[in-house]
Structures are given as C-alpha cells and as structure tokens.
Amino acid sequence: MDNQQISHLSQIQTQWSMIFQAHQGDADEANAAIEALMDRYSGSVHRYLLGITRDPDLAGDLAQEFALRFLRGDFRRANPRFGRFRNFVKTAVMNLVIDHHRRKKNRPQLLGDEAPEPEAPAEDLTDLDRRFLDCWREEILERAWSELARLQERTGQPFYTVLRLRADRPELHSQQAAVFLSEKLGKTVSPGWVRQTLLRSRGKFVAFIIEEVSHSLGNPSAEDIDEELMDLGLFDYCRPGRKR
Fold first, then answer.
1. Fewer CB within 10 Å, N side or C side of the chain?
2. What are the domain boundaries of the chain?
3. CB 78 within 8 A of CB 126
4. Which residues, in sequence order, are CB contacts of 145 under 8 Å at separation 6+?
5. pTM of this structure
6. What pLDDT score does 154 carry?
7. Secondary structure of the chain: what % helix, strand, coil (to 5)?
8. CA distance 96 to 70
9. CA distances, 14 to each of 38, 77, 102, 218, 242 (Å)
10. Angle at 38 between CA 33 and CA 43, to 5 degrees
11. Using one digit for the tens of pLDDT, what is the confidence trace for 218-244?
12. What angle (nearest 5°) sits at the alpha carbon of residue 147, between those of residues 143 and 151?
C-alpha cells in the first residue's frame, strides 16, 4: 500500500470514532453518527439475522431491536482495545439471537453472578461466525459497488459498467466484451480499450473496498488492513490493485 493511500485512509472517520461521537457528542453530532452507523451496518445485520432465523419477519424484528439497543446507549462501552468493530457488532447480534431463544423458551432471566450461561443457538458457533463474516464481506462489496456506480455517474467514465460485465460474464474475452460494451455505451470500443478500462475499474473498486474495510478499524495501519482483508477473503483480489 503506497503512502498516498495510507494518508487518505488516515483521514477517514472510523466506526469507533463515530460510535464515540454517537454517545458522547452533542445532539446534532450524535444523531448524524447514529444515522451513519445504522446506514453502514443495517444491511449486514439484517442479512445475518435472516440467514440464522430463515424468517423475514423475525429477522426484521431482531434488526429493529438491534437499532433500539444502539439508540438507548447499550454500545457506549465499546472500545477498540477490545477488538475490531465487526466483532463487537457480531457479539451484539448474537446476544439478540440468544435473548430471542430465551424468550421463546420462557426461561426466567436471572441476575447476578449466579445466573447460568445463556444457551447458544442450535447452529454451531463456528458456522455462525463464518456466516457473519460472509455477511460482513457481502456488505463491504455491496458498498464498494455502490461507490463505483456513483463514481461513474459523477465522471461519466464507465467504471461500474465495465467491471460489472466482467463480474457477471467472466467467460467473455476482450473482443466479445468490446462488442457488448459498444452496444451498451452507444459508441465503438476496442478490445484494448476494454482491457485498459477494466484495469482502471478494478483499481477504483479495490480502493473502495480498502476504504470500506478501514472504516471498521481504529486508526488502522497497513498491516491491520491487510489482516482484515485476509480474514474477509479479499486480500488476493485486492493485492494487484494495491501494488499499483
């Protein structure tokens, strides 16, 4: 990762700083931070809950409960020293599921040190961890695609269109892609243009992925970002673009 990219990432407001702002800032700052956090993580939270419960209505109810717990300040003790923000979100969501299982079985919730350990969902916890990581990865990719589409809209450069075609139709070689894109864009493009634009589009997309990943890390170093990309299974895809 080059120095310019690290400098840019250091100026991004991380989710840790936003959660502090949401619970410690003035009313306007808190509301803005809460809205931004909910926008960023509501998709992955709902996707994860839907995968666990396989019930759209229940997943929606639990996602609403997640938002309510955040609004009432349950997350105010979050601290980057205790791990990554996604792990904190995962724990909060898992607690929602555990609480739901408790209520469903009508078990009394005891207080104090003598309370029994909460019963885990029937699904293996390792599988639940993997599923949450998959949902987190999907959310990051979805947001990176959205940013690429917005960049295309702002600049008029078909970054999203070209890369989306590559993702959806990987079997097309450059000549075939040129024919398709010529019709799609309303202008004649060459195979060489396709290859060059695809290279640029991937570079932009990788930058957006790295930016999204950095949001969930407190003051991340290049090594922190690399480790997170590895955990998410995105390191190999991002490595060529980062080197460039």
1. C
2. 3-243
3. no
4. 160, 164, 205
5. 0.67
6. 97
7. 75, 0, 25
8. 12
9. 14, 16, 34, 6, 20
10. 150
11. 677 888 889 989 988 999 999 875 655
12. 170
